[in-house]
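Reviewers asked in the last cycle whether our approach scales beyond single polypeptides. To address this, we selected a multi-component target totalling 947 residues and predicted its structure end to end. The input consisted of the following lines:
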Amino acid sequence: MSEPPTANRKLQTADTKPPSAHPIDELVSERTTWATSVRSTVASMRAWIFLFFLLVGFEIWAQLAYHTTFLFNPFNASSIAVFTVGPLLLALGQTFVVISGGIDLSVGFTMGLAAVVFSKILNLSMGVLPDPLALVVALVVALLASAVPGLINGLLIAILRVPPFIGTLGMYGVARGIAYLMAGGTTIPISNPVVSFIGNQSLTLLSIGDFRVSIPILVLVTIVLTVAMVFMLSQSRFGRHVYAIGGNRQASLRAGINVTRNTIALYILSALSAGIGGILYTARFTAGAPQAGETLLLDSIAAVVIGGASLFGGSGTITGTVIGALIIAVIQYGLVFVNVEPFWQFVAVGVVIIISVLVDQTQKQLSGARTDE
Amino acid sequence: MKRWQTKASLLAGAFLLFAGWNHPASAADKKYTIALIPGLTTDAFYITMHKGAQAAADALGVNLVFQGAPKFDPEQQVPVLNAVIGRKPDAILIAPTDKTQLVSPLKNASGSGISIITVDTFIGTGHYQTGSGDADFPLSYIASDNIAGGQIAARALAKAIGEKGKVYVSNVKPNISTTDQREQGFKEEMKKYPNITVLETQFNDDDANKAAAQFQAVYARNSDLAGVFGANLFSATGAANGVKQAGAQGKIKVVAFDAPQSIVSDIKAGNIDIAIAQHPAEIGFYGVVTAYAHLTGQSVPPLIGTGFTVIDKSNLDDPNVKKFIYSE
Amino acid sequence: MSEQPILRVQSVSKRFGGVHALENVSVDLFPGEVLALAGDNGAGKSTLIKVISGVHRPDEGKISYDGAEVTFENPQKAREQGIETIYQDLALADNLDVGANVFLGREPMKRVLGLPVLDRKKMRTEAAEALRVLDIRINRFDLPLRSMSGGQRQAVAIGRAIHWNAKVLIMDEPTAALGVPEQRKVIALIKSLKQSGVGVIFISHNLVDIFAVSDRIVVLRRGQKVGEAATQATNSDEIVRWMVGG
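The resulting structure, written as structure tokens, was:
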């Protein structure tokens, strides 16, 4: 059985002139021009610019229509900050997953699972242990419980090579079922004063006469976590490998990156971030609900994408995600503030998400923008 | 008030039924199977309804089957319904998750001789046995009168805020029959109070976080806000948390529709002022009793309305009130 | 040319099921030499380089590297020893910059306030140095590779191998995906690699490239070595005859 002589097709005679001896300077392409670099800067600032115009827009609207301020009202600022906490916590871990080229659809119910486990354990241990110790036990158990769906997601995706969309969709069902079963189909009230304090009080950072700067504890906790996530994504080997896996999985494998272990770690991180979201939810509403994160899932994915991450993997930043989450929160809050009819609010949020993603896509095509932290 | 009359007539019917049951007739020799299909299985409201139904089933010697989907969604409910039909129960009590999509599967069941009663929600118009339309075949619709519930909530909130000020409804999303009716009843009743202004309704997609932020946005522009009506659990807990974050507890009154344990602890903690408790156990109880009555040859009313209990801090520990708190 | 081969493949056979992918193939590679592997599709070129780079293990025969017999459990082990493979799809992360790609999987760390952080500066300067040695200039080191040309990316892949002290560089169709001007740049690059004493195994369909760059040509057909000649001592007609078995 003879093979077709395909070499002949590509055959060229060897006595054509050999390539020039000093062509290497030509390797320097002039594609990276001044205009490109301006465009890439604008592209990476896109979410910031969008948020800026959004805030200015609502300010003008509030001034014209109601002769009041939107922007310079500390109550609005703190309300929006608290509003952002839940979706942002889901979005932080989701950012890592999306950069790696995956998606985690289970986070909403992992959040619910953590909320329910936290409430259950807190209620069980309250009578038995001193209050602060009961809190610590509940925290640890809830975090461990929320890590489990992440671990299973990671094993399914990294080892069994189940597509993330399918694997985490399955886990969405499992986590949800278990959360509902544990909760007996209802929300579980808790009554630990420390927890309620964390969920609803503010810390005063600065106080000069009547001028006080205070920040809700929930927001403070979220800021600390966000900084930790920024560090992990931009400064650690793990973060760098997340980008590499999302950019080119084969290349990462060949470069000796332990893709399996990193992938499992990613999904555990996502689940833990959601778990913390569930615990803070419980602290705030003094009740754990299995459906705590159900509606937050889509907001969290939208925040990641508006923040500049590509759903195809390889790009995205935590700061982008924070801005993305703020954009969604500001729109939803602002539209109520300026008293837009409810049905138009749905439309506005959807339109903004679509525009934002479209702008992102075109910007990316136009420029070689930096895509990592 | 027609609904309350039908309820009274049913009570009489139920009484007769129990009286009759003490003298075993031929019907009592057969052990009937009645299936209860809730709107969703993971909700204290339906769980409490199941308990009421079970109590009636135990008393009547009926075999009760409880099967449902974890989400309020016709796509998930219809397969459960078909599986139940396959087991050929004598009667099905169902909380249909859609007014139209459930008509044809239920009609098939009805055609094969299974008695259909809808509980909590309805198909078609909710007016059964009228001889008109294709969705009048169920024998009876048993539910809280949600319009009346909204009216009760309005009266309770009006009283709490001294019959003046701005209020708004925190609601789930449009086009859910029950929550729409609560909002409708609330707004109608509030028209009777000239000094109360009802602001635009805010829809929160059943997300407490969003409900809280919406409260804060409304409050930020309306510092004279006096009260909120949360048309379901998360609408109410969310709004209540918004009040708490704003440090406006006591100043702004929150009325919650429904009374699971968490609402009760919110009332204790002062986050929620008033809860309007439905009587889901009654719905379940009357559902089974009505089905049994029909199966044993009695006539049954096509519409049965169950009542409400207004819960606040003052009556929370009253055993007559406590029994209406939804159990797990 | 050095007297001692850096890599020596002796009588290697590899079977997949009943198919003889390689049969009794022997090849030597000397430092600073460019060895071209020619052959039609399915001739066994890919199998041979996979055996050398540790992807497959030979069923028979042995491989000696740097004077000692070796068996590589996986490509990672081969790479650690200095046998680097540059694949057709380049094995680069397009979304990362030059430094990140050169140091992929081996990122240097430094301590800031006691915390380990990526040493970006080191990655950039050393990557620039590695490319400078190869006489490659890239003006922006902070942009992702996706914004660069195919030739520049090929250069980064080669620069990475050199930075990590590869002694044997296997290049599978390095010019296949490139336009003609870029192909020439890569050929030039291979010549400068040669200067630095690296042994290069070069697989190509393109006889022009093969004659332009190689010192020696080995031709495979149906898993067997059917011809070997010093490049100067042969011509394209002979190579084609060997390839098609005419």
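Chain A touches chain C through 55 residues (CB under 8 Å). We regard this as preliminary and will revisit it once experimental data from Aim 1 are available.
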